[in-house]
Amino acid sequence: MNVDLPGALLKVLLLWILTAPHEFAHAWVATRLGDDTPTREGRVTLNPLAHVDWIGTALLPFLMALLGGGFLGWGRPVNSNPAKLKGGLNGLAVVALAGPASNVVLAVLMGGIAIATSTTLRPLALFMAEGVQLSLYLAIFNLLPVPPLDGSKLLLAARVPIRVYVELARFGFMLLIVLVSATDIGRYMSHWSDQGALAIFRLWGWR
Fold first, then answer.
1. 147 with 172: CB under 8 angstroms?
2. Which of 20, 46, 137, 155 has the most crowded CB, counting CB atoms within 10 A?
3. Amino acid 69: pLDDT
4. 6-34 residue pLDDT tens
5. Are the beta carbons of 63 and 7 closer than 8 angstroms?
């Protein structure tokens, strides 16, 4: 087994960089839709420490990246009250989609930096290029309909019975580990994010 300590640390660093804007996007959109819960809980900020989940943003992704068992990570979920949101559960869906959307925007920006620095600051360019792939991977991963991921909120917006959602939430953590490490879903997500990264680089003029 090849243990890549620098690579694992790099992925965790990138995850921290990408998690703060992701969770901020949830919080900001929720406030724009009338819910003051994120503001009261101090989540409308880009400070990574406000959004870190020490298992999901540090320990688990580090171990999985170190041992080559796929990659799994998330930030501390932003609480939102559908009763306060414009559109109720439909508004909750908009809040949920804001996080993955932010990852796509970040991927495009990081792709531009990677191309612009590819000949002058190659270490930075390589770091940004890996960030493009990881940001897209996180966008796809977070759309999985498994609590606590963003995609699970879409189940609520689709009016899936709450008892079904609660049962999923009970086993969500273990289900995610199994899906990523023991099925082809992780491989598919990596492939899609790689293809998306290539499309972004071409958008910025890479040939």
1. yes
2. 137
3. 62
4. 888 888 888 899 999 999 999 999 999 99
5. no
Establish how many alpha carbons lie within 13 A of residue 97's alpha carbon, considering only the half-sphere containing its beta carbon: 10
User: Would you state the structure tokens that stand for residue 120, as one six-digit string?
Assistant: 């002058």
Give the integer Cα–Cα distance in Å for 112 and 67. Answer: 31
Helix (H) or strand (E) holding 47: none
Give the start-to-end residue ranges of the domains of the chain.
5-203
Q: pLDDT tens-digit profile of 33-49?
A: 999 999 999 999 999 99
- Contact between 48 and 54 under an 8 Å Cβ cutoff? The reply is no
What are the tokens at 90? Answer: 């439909």
> What pLDDT score was predicted for residue 2?
67
Average pLDDT over every residue of 154-182: 86
3-state secondary structure of 178: helix
- 23 assigned to active site: yes
CA 98 to chain centre: 11
Q: For the segment 89-98, what is each residue's pLDDT rounded down to a tens digit?
A: 999 999 999 9
CB 79 within 8 A of CB 169: no
Residue bearing tokens 């959004």:
51
pLDDT higher for 197 or 146?
A: 197
Q: Which of 23, 41, 130, 167 is catalytic?
A: 23
